Amino acid sequence: IEVSDPAAMAGDIKEVARFLGAHLAGICKLDQYHVYPYRFAEPYKGPQTEKIPVELKHSYAISIGIKMDLQKIRSTPSYIDHAEVGRTYAAVAWTACELAAYIRELGYPARAHHTANELVCHVPIAVQAGLGELGRNGILVSSRFGPCLRLATVTTDLPLATDSPVNLGVDAFCAICKKCASNCPGRSIPSDGKGLYKGVEKWKIDQVACVR
Questions:
Q1: Is the peptide bond before 77 cis (omega within 30 degrees of 0)?
Q2: Which of 61, 71, 117, 188 has a CA 20 to 30 Å removed from the CA of 35?
Q3: What is the C-alpha to C-alpha distance for residues 98 and 95, in angstroms, rounded to an integer?
Q4: CA gap 166, 143 in Å, rounded
Q5: Would you state the torsion angle of the CA atoms of residues 135, 115, 95, 200, taken in this order, to the nearest 10 degrees?
Q6: What does residue 137 show for φ and ψ, rounded to 5 degrees?
Q7: Using CA atoms, how far apart are residues 204 and 211, in angstroms rounded to an integer?
Q8: pTM above 0.85, yes or no
Q9: Are 66 and 29 in contact (CB under 8 A)?
């Protein structure tokens, strides 16, 4: 179909995303720093497998978020919170796949990016699309659900009006609070100031300590 009003189309796409289960949806331009340089041929076998260069030339990224059940997440660490995380990842993956299929039905290329099948970094896209801010804990913090949500992304060439980053006061709050750093069992979250990492000033999570 011909798109004469990208703003109206963006509104329609967000409405479809909500119909398909998304609690949050935002749109931004897809920049190459959002895209992984390569993927693994067998992702669960790690760096020992073949690296395949990623080429993703879509113009726009649609960030979608689905909230998790806070009471179940509060049971962490347990099988209950693990199950809720898995359920939400599956739900947001389904929403992304259905939204991408809808856009392809309109005549435009679209790809869903979700757990274990993603070519993009979800959090920078979500920040750029106005879903929230990056917190000290390395996770997107939204105004409605805090960090208690999971993300997926749809990239496309469908002409869309874009959203802008938001200022929720998260950065200033995280600079003072430090509760997540104090309570992190692996001491993976820094309690000091930000550092420059890959050209971005942020609190850098110790990923190895987190996994261990």
A1: yes
A2: 188
A3: 5
A4: 10
A5: 30
A6: -75, 5
A7: 14
A8: yes
A9: no
Q: Distances in Å between the alpha carbon of 94 and those of 43, 56, 135, 153, 194?
A: 20, 21, 27, 11, 35
Helices (H), 23-78: 70-73
d(CA 76, CA 156) in angstroms, rounded, equals: 36
Backbone angles phi, psi at 80, to 5 degrees: -65, -50
Tokens representing residue 47 in the block: 């760096």
Question: Phi then psi for 9, rounded to 5 degrees?
Answer: -65, -40
**Structure confidence at residue 45 (pLDDT):** 73
pLDDT of residue 46: 67
Alpha-carbon distances of 115 from 16, 93, 211, rounded to whole Å: 21, 7, 17
Treating both helix axes as pointing N-terminal to C-terminal, what angle do 6-19 and 79-105 enclose, rounded to 10 degrees? Answer: 140
Q: Tally Cβ neighbours within 10 Å of residue 41.
A: 10
79: tokens are 């099988």
C-alpha dihedral sign at 44, 148, 210, 61: positive
**How many other β-carbons are positioned within 10 Å of the β-carbon of residue 45?**
10
pLDDT, averaged per 10 consecutive residues of the chain (212 residues), comes to 97 98 98 92 75 94 98 93 96 98 98 95 97 95 96 98 97 94 93 89 92 87
- Output the pLDDT for position 88: 98
pLDDT for the residue 170: 95
Tokens of 26: 């935002």
